[in-house]
User: Fold this.
Amino acid sequence: MDAIQIVNVSKKFKERGKSFFVLNRINLNIKKGEIFGFLGPNGAGKTTLLSIILGILYPDEGKVIIMGQDVHKKREIMEKINYVSGETRFHWVLTVRDVLNFYGMSYGISRKKLKKRIKMLLDFFGITQIAHRKFDSLSTGERMRLVFAKALLNEPEILLFDEPTLGLDPQIANKVRKEIKRVNEELRTTILLTSHYMQEVESLCHRIAFINKGRIIDTGSVEKVKRKRFSSYDLIIKVREIKDQKLMEEMGFKLCKDRVHINLSYHDDLNKILSFFTENGYKIVDIQIKKPTLEDYFVSTLDTDEVVQS
Assistant:
């Protein structure tokens, strides 16, 4: 059973008296225990879909199945979900412990269980020593760890992350990514993540979906999705000396001083290329493999309206 199934979900909004699709027959399956990235430009429909999954909005058509239950018919299933946003804020006068106590009671957790749960989460995120401090006095990294802890109070099986590193400096953003990965690996929490940071998605997500103009364009692993748009990559080899320029050119290499360039398809045998150099007495100093990035894919995809669901 999948953690989340999104089945033929459509949603229309109105603007200046005209209706338009924000989501147009969206279908997605998110597996238990995976980190799934949901990508797309601003206004593509990402936040609307998250709102439907959370039960805040109702779809015009289709349904969302959470752990086998229709989220809009079995509201109790929402106890298995929680939400993290990079823009989450708490009242400045509340301490770390106050925040966790307040939300724990809001989730209906018994006092005895809540006390144990708070202790575990303070230890898990390394914020026990700051439990007495007010939210207003916390650093950005400490605030994000508190947001994570709050989201795990009800022991959710699914976490929705909406731009968790938005506006953070690189050092703090890197710490946040490590915490996301740790929550997924150690607690086996299923994570649905939206982000505009392509490197973040590449480093975290097992699979991704790309949405544009309310339609799913591509789904699959990061590598699989990129290969739908890019069939080749560049190989750059630095050698001590180019001995036979004519032979190199006959082999399809482009030469630039002590570097040799070639464009390869993913089906080409890289070992065969490297063997050619060693067999011909070349001393390889450095090798660079330049493959298209997810950012390249993002830009390329926006240039087409093609829909490729898989």
